[in-house]
Amino acid sequence: MMRDEAFNLVKQHVSNKNLIKHMLATEAVMGSLARHLGENETEWKLAGLLHDLDYDKTVDHFERHGLLTAELLSSHDISEAVIQAIKSHPGHFPRESAMDKALYAADPVTGLIVAAALMHPSKKLKNVDVTFVERRFQEKRFAAGADRDQIRSCETLGLGLSEFIALSLRAMQEIDGELGL
């Protein structure tokens, strides 16, 4: 599947503009992680872009989250590795591949970084640094929906927390215009 086709699916199935921005941020972070780890950047970015494709339909049925996306993608030319990463990111299936583990960690870190940018005096992603995000990470009540243990799972990829935050932040800063930050 080409990126344009994937993004058209996102626009067709996702109505919330902030959710679309989250999916774009996750795509960017996954691409950065793939480059860093020597993995297939195209596939990893697709997993990030499409991971919440079914969210509007599964928000009240979390047990179906990821599974419905797999069904929606079944008629498209997309690898089983991408489907597996999407199905495993909500925790319904074991995370086995590096892509599975990366998506699991990348999903909440984007929310943490966006919340940090919105708290920054400039409200601009380009002005946020790793130290600023790490300080917010330590504040349990800050961006409480960004599961810290899930973010810390970056260690299963051989990445320390600071390195993971740095890779993620740089990736999101590269698309700050698309994210509106």
| Cα-atom radius of gyration | 15 Å
Annotation, overall tally of beta strands: 0
Instruction: Calculate the mean pLDDT score and round it.
Output: 96
CATH topology: Hypothetical protein af1432
Total of domains: 1
SSE succession:
HHHHHHHHHHH
What distance lies between the first and last C-alpha atoms, to the nearest angstrom? 29 Å
Low-confidence stretches: none
Helices and strands: which structural class? mainly alpha
Overall morphology: globular
Per CATH, which architecture? Orthogonal Bundle
Biggest sheet record: none
Report helical residue fraction: 55-70%
* CATH class placement: Mainly Alpha
The portion of residues forming beta strands comes to under 5%
| Separate helix tally | 11
What would your notes on this structure say?
It contains eleven helices and no strands. It has helices at residues 3-13, 17-37, 41-50, 55-58, 67-73, 80-88, 98-119, 130-138, 148-152, 161-173, 176-179. Helix 7 (98-119) crosses helix 10. The protein starts with a helix and ends with a helix. 64% of the residues lie in helices and 0% in strands. It is mostly helical. It has a single domain, classed as Hypothetical protein af1432, CATH 1.10.3210. The protein is globular, with a radius of gyration of 15 Å.
